[in-house]
Amino acid sequence: MAWYSLSEDAALLFVKRMLQKVSSLVGTLEKYWPSLTCDAFSTCEGGKGLFWAHEWEKHGTCSFPVIQDEYSYFITTLNLYFKYNVTKVLSEAGYVPSSSQKYPLEGVVSAIENAVGASPLLVCSDGAVEELHICFSKNLKPRNCITDSRSTCPQHITFPGPVPLRSENCITEVTELSENET
């Protein structure tokens, strides 16, 4: 039974336990894996833990037995995020977030393919990239995503996204974090 189908009290208990397991990563998760519909950890209804619990339930549990727990899932995912830094790849190819500048879908896909070694999946809404997926095999190597980006994206797209982080605030790898780093 999925955590979100439990009673409200049971679901919140599940989320609380999950957050305890990843407590040393919460600061890093807030910075690099935020919920875009919930802007502050303490003010979000139910807490951002609901978002991360959803990510663990939907994606993390599928990575078993390679990744066996919540902490390993989130730290592995963060490290893959830094290793395959799509924001940097796209920026170096001249594709930067903009609500008005349109970019060729094929050029964006090609830039990611060249850097990652596999075809990504872009999901668009009204011509704007809403999601960008890099797909991985069970051994955590990039693989071609099954769905074609052209199914939801037009030939020219926009990236109305968050402003890229300043480089002095970026990290390149997450290891075991101490209490004062969260």
TrEMBL record:
UniProt cross-references to InterPro entries, sorted A to Z: RNase_T2-like, RNase_T2-like_sf, RNase_T2_His_AS_2
Gene Ontology biological process terms from the UniProt entry: RNA catabolic process
UniProt superkingdom: Eukaryota
Matching PANTHER family: RIBONUCLEASE T2
Gene that encodes it: LOC104586826
Family classification: Belongs to the RNase T2 family.
Pfam families (alphabetical): Ribonuclease_T2
Protein name: Ribonuclease 2-like isoform X1
A cellular component term, taken from the record's GO annotations: extracellular region
GO MF annotation list: ribonuclease T2 activity; RNA binding; RNA endonuclease activity
